[in-house]
Each structure stands twice: as C-alpha cells, then as structure tokens.
Amino acid sequence: MAKHVEYNEVDENYLKERQLKRGAAGWLLLAGLGVSYVISGDFAGWNFGLDEGGWGGLLIATVLMAVMYSCMVFGLAEMSSAMPVAGAGYGFARRALGPLGGFATGVAILIEYAIAPAAIAVFIGGYIETLGLFGLTSSWPVFLACYVIFIGIHLYGVGEALRLMFAITAVAVLALAAFVIGMIPKFSVDKLFDIVPDDAAAGASEFLPFGFAGAMAALVYGIWFFLAIEGVPLAAEEARDPERDMPRGIIAGMAVLVVFAALILLIAPGAAGSSAIATSDNPLPEAVRAAYGGDNALAQVINYVGLAGLVASFFSIIYAYSRQLFALSRAGYLPRWLSRTGRRKTPYLALLVPGTIGFVLAAATQDGALLINIAVFGATVSYVLLNLSHIVLRVREPDLERPYRTPGGVVTTGIALVLAVAAVIATFLVDKVAAAITAAIFVAAVGYFWFYSRHRLVAAAPEEEFAVIASAEHELDRE
User: Fold this and answer.
1) Is the pLDDT assigned to residue 383 strictly greater than 90?
2) 88 three-class SS
C-alpha cells in the first residue's frame, strides 16, 4: 500500500506550527488519565446491558470484555513504548498495516472519541435534570456549557487540564467508594435475578432471562466499563518518559477499572434490583433510592458527586479526540489546518471542530444509548485493527526495540482479537441503525483517503517517519 500513496514537501515551519508540550505527564497522571477516560462508565451506560441480557448476561459480557481489554492493554503497552507518538493507534497500525490500515484505525478511534463525549453529555443532562438544578426542562444548555467550559480549559494548556482532570477523577473515585459502602447492607443475591425470563428466547433462564442472544448483545454494554482506556498512548508525545511511563500508566489504570467494574456490577443491581435500574440514565442515584425506599442523603451525594465521574470522562475524552485528530491531520490524512497548535501548544482546531459536532449530535438526538452504540462500534473496529497490528509487528519485526514486551506475546493479543471480533458482531445485534451510521462514516472516510488525502501525505510527520524508515529497511533486507 505504501507504493500507492504520495508524499508532499512541507516547509520548515510546518512542524513548528504543530508542536505539543513535552514532559507534561508522568506515569501517575497517565494512569489517572486512563481511569478518567472510563470512569463515567461506572456511573451510567453499563446498566443498559441489564435490559439486553439480564444480570447473568451482563456478567458474562463484562468478564469477556475485561479479558479483552486486559490482553489488549498489554499489547498497547508494548507498542506505545516502542513507538511513542501522538497518533498512538493510528501510528501503530500505520506501521503494521500500511497507510490505509493506519487511517482506518485512526478514523475508528476518532469516531469513538468524538461521539462518546456527546453520549456522556446526555447522561450529565440526565443527572442535572434529576437534581432539578437551574429549573431546566431541556438539557441542551447543559451540553453547550460542558463543551464550552471544558474545551476552554484544554485550550488553556495540557498540563493544567491533566492536573484538574486528575483531581475531578479522585472525587469520582471517592463517590464510587461511598456508593459501594452505603449499598452493601441492602445487598441480596435474589435482587440480581429479578428480571422475568423471556420463555421465547433460546437458553432463557433466571440467570440469562433473555437467553444466549441477550448475553451476546450485552457485550456492547460490558465494554462501557472499560471504553477508552486505549486512549492513554495518545499522550505519548506529552509524557515525561514514554518508554517507561506509558506501560506503567496504562496497566495501572486498567487494574483500577477492573476492580470498580466488579464492585459496581455486583453491588448496584444486588442492592436495588436489576429491573429497577436497567433503563436509567442515572442508575447509581436511582439504585440508592430503590434500595432505601426513597430519597436520602446518600442518593443526593451520589447524584451530585456522580457528576464528577461523568465530567471526568467528558473532559478527558475531549483530550483524546483532539490528539487523534491532530496526528491524522499533521500527517495529511485529514485537512492539515486541523493540526495547527496555538501559543500554548494545544491543537485548538482539533478541539473545537469535533466539539461542535458532538454538541450538535447531543442536542439533536438526546439519546445516550444510540450515541454509546455508535461510539462502541467505532471502538470495537479499532480494537480488531490494534490487536492485529501487534500480532503483525511481532511477526514482521521481531527485532524492533521494545522497552516493554507483552506477557504471552501474540497469544495474548490473539485472545483480544477474537473477543474484539465478537464485540463488533454484537453491535449489529443491539442497534443496526447505529452500526449503519458508523459504517457510512467509514465509507465516506475511506473515499476521502482514496481519492484525495493519500496523494497529499506528509513524510515528516513522526508516525509516517517510523513507517517509512521501517519500509526502507525492509526493502534493503530483501535485496
């Protein structure tokens, strides 16, 4: 595929106008970034899996997705230490799968990160309406405020944004701990299985009320406990010591997420009843009210402080989409003007353009579940390509310098690959409309690449330099 692309010359100021701030994050901030990306999934979104598969179906889905993400994270830790570039997933796939594979991976990640904040904004609106704040009867002013305030903070500077994000995430973690402790006295195993089985579903039982198909469909929502942890490597060019800090940060973040996924999946439906929270936009406060028979101080605390979890993920995923868009634009895959950075070395257009699109989507649909499904479809496609990239690089470039090596090698990422394919299939089972919308975006993006941007790539971009040098070395070895 490299023979079918063309590189354009750029002037000496091109990369100077596209610089990020180096040394802004150590491994602890990177781990916090990983948790921050995902923590909103503990507060809202996962519970829709109860409506699809019941508690047993969602349990199976969550365990499978925990295995997939854990295996994939080990692969990402290796690739990010070997290729610490802002393009992250796009950069890894570019080297392994060529320009089209790299672009497809980058687009999939961009769909995930551009749409997920819109879904989270809908959930934030749901929490605020439940609290009766500001007398709002429509949530679009909340969506607008979220985008304006938090994009503004990112425009101010990455170091300040990451530190504030870490503080907000810490508050959210304390809220989850308070929720778990407060709900333990109300826990009952019987409440987990209070959804009436659908006798028409194959394999239906008290454990799997919607049968085997329900468990498969629940994969989409099991993902929500971990969705976006793979974005940590996007901070590679802003890390202090990416070869050392990137593996430590992403693995530590994943470990924290697994613990919270287990606690929330067990305690929330086990104290409130699975049926009580299966379709809620704010399941944790609703779970407290259901468990205690009405409103109380804990429900109010979780509702107010729970906003911190949603805000943390909203805030951090804005960072992620801007860096992925920045890298694709800097390399010429998307319009180059999107990658310009300002005086404070933040990619201001890469922050503003997807933010505008996200606000419009949130305001127009006000459907968090639909937006989740679009984001998840993009994510699962990227997971297939990311795991495949690790396997290809291990086979094709065994001598590539790897400061960190994945335990189990290609077997580990092979397991993740199989589970990622299953997750892609599950998105079609849950929401064909969301899958079709995402597929249409992919087709449009590939058309743009094939007919336009592949003739205008920038060889000086770090991700392209990695791949071009590797390709040249491979050609020399064959001669």
Assistant:
1) yes
2) coil
